[in-house]
Amino acid sequence: IELKDRAKDIIISGGENISSVEIENTLYRHQAVLEAGVVARPDEHWGETPCAFVTLKPESEITEEELVTFCREHLAGYKIPKTLVFQELPKTSTGKIRKNMLREQAKGLSSGNWNDFQNEFLQFKISPLAELRSETRLENKATVGIINRLIKYEI
Hints:
Elements: E1 10-13, E2 16-19, H1 20-28, E3 33-43, E4 47-56, H2 64-74, E5 83-86, H3 99-110, H4 114-122, H5 129-135, H6 141-152
Parallel strand pairs: 4-5
Antiparallel strand pairs: 1-2, 3-4
Helix pairs in contact: 5-6
């Protein structure tokens, strides 16, 4: 028997057990990642899927697609995070990542609460997101990644 993670941090996706620590360790190996926290996000088809919350190092820029490609090179396909959120991670007074808060946030993402997500990260209304993305005047690649996610979910 090999223990890899705490029971509540195991993600069960389509009958496969996925260690959130294994995904976090992979994300930490990327040069642009400062912090990472991975939790289960409810999914109608798979039961749960990995949801990664990532804080980038200062002056670092990376898109969601680039980070997913990096994960594909180092993880099995079913372990790749299906959702990536770029943000500052909530921490306790001792500096530990508060996964309970990340779990709640991941549940909110799955309930279709994208308007709050959009307002929190973009701070303004976007009518046609595709037009905004195509203008490519956005300097922050994380913002472009968020817009791509919103387009993907047809907000």
